[in-house]
Design goal:
about 325 residues; 10 helices; about 10% strand
Length: about 325
């Protein structure tokens, strides 16, 4: 994550495997074969476009083996599709990347009582993410949230993920002012914290990062809702330089308290945990000398931060005419262990 691969190194198909034809008869037969977890995973892929094997294991299965067995069956049924990224020689085999396939999209459309054509789903567009310049960035954003789901699925969980909005959904709600990479909320016994995620890939100049602060201030003024903004950076050196630009931008606001900001860097944690937001890695702009905080400790850094409003009060939440309804942030109850 600290040194993202070039996008050209992330494209290749998996070996072909026998698959069914997604005709009307097949869709009818799927009805009694798909579990609530299958449907939730399919909806997750539709909403967030692409997830890796590892991320799907974090989200819904106890082991990689059981996940792989079920994912292969769903692939053969055309519920989901997959592609295999390339990696440079010596980097090892990357995980498969999964997307929603035509049968999966048709099942979800039927569940929501809308025509498939009205969802905007196209199979070629779904697989087109393999060639996105932003593919690695999207995978990183989604990994941020699947880490939280994995924590919430543990025995005696530290909390639960109560909101996970994709970039597209956030854009529908706030896109005329801000365009965050995602919106999330984590609820625990100690706190209820929400945030906009800005996952920086070291591609934007510092003035452009700083310019986002005034836009988040405008959003807070317009909606009357104060929401923290979490910036994730690939290295500590990038974080240090960015913090100066962000602090200057916050200081220029008429009401600096309307844009609480905290930052972190991938290199602060071991490779497997670089996207785990629950660790003590967040450094608020207002308390640089107090040490890094965990996600659920962040509200302590902003004494004037009001309690989060209900997610249903958010602009655009559940608005009609926007395709399929979004997935629940957590898997069905019986699959959380």
């Amino acid at each position: 994550m600290a040194r993202p691969l070039p996008q050209r190194a992330l494209r290749a198909p998996l070996r072909p495997s026998a698959r069914v034809v997604a005709d009307a008869e097949h869709l009818a037969n799927l009805t009694h074969h798909l579990s609530p977890r299958d449907r939730w995973i399919t909806r997750l892929l539709y909403e967030h476009r692409v997830l890796t094997t590892h991320q799907l294991v974090q989200a819904g299965w106890p082991t990689r083996r059981t996940a792989n067995e079920r994912l292969l069956q769903l692939y053969r049924w055309r519920v989901i599709d997959r592609f295999q990224p390339l990696s440079p020689v010596g980097e090892g085999m990357p995980p498969a990347h999964y997307v929603c396939d035509v049968a999966g999209a048709a099942v979800l459309a039927a569940e929501d009582s809308i025509d498939l054509k009205d969802t905007g789903y196209r199979h070629d567009r779904a697989l087109g993410v393999a060639y996105w310049p932003q593919l690695a960035h999207r995978i990183a954003v989604n990994g941020f949230f699947t880490h939280l789901i994995a924590h919430a699925r543990q025995p005696n969980p530290p909390g639960t993920l109560t909101a996970w909005w994709s970039e597209a959904r956030a854009r529908r709600a706030f896109g005329d002012i801000v365009r965050p990479d995602a919106y999330g909320r984590w609820t625990s016994n100690r706190s209820d914290v929400e945030w906009f995620l800005e996952l920086d890939w070291a591609t934007e100049p510092y003035p452009r990062l700083a310019a986002k602060i005034s836009k988040y201030g405008q959003l807070a003024t317009t909606t009357g809702i104060v929401t923290p903004v979490l910036f994730w950076f690939p290295t500590t050196s990038r974080e240090t330089r960015a913090r100066r630009a962000l602090a200057d931008a916050v200081a220029r606001l008429d009401q600096p308290d309307t844009v609480p900001v905290a930052t972190t860097a991938a290199t602060l944690t071991p490779p497997d945990d670089q996207l785990d937001p629950s660790r003590a890695r967040w450094l608020p702009l207002t308390q640089a000398h107090a040490g890094r905080l965990t996600l659920d400790q962040l509200p302590r850094a902003w004494p004037r931060l009001p309690a989060p409003a209900p997610v249903s009060d958010r602009l655009g939440d559940g608005a009609p005419g926007q395709g399929l309804r979004p997935p629940a942030p957590m898997p069905p109850e019986k699959y959380r262990g």
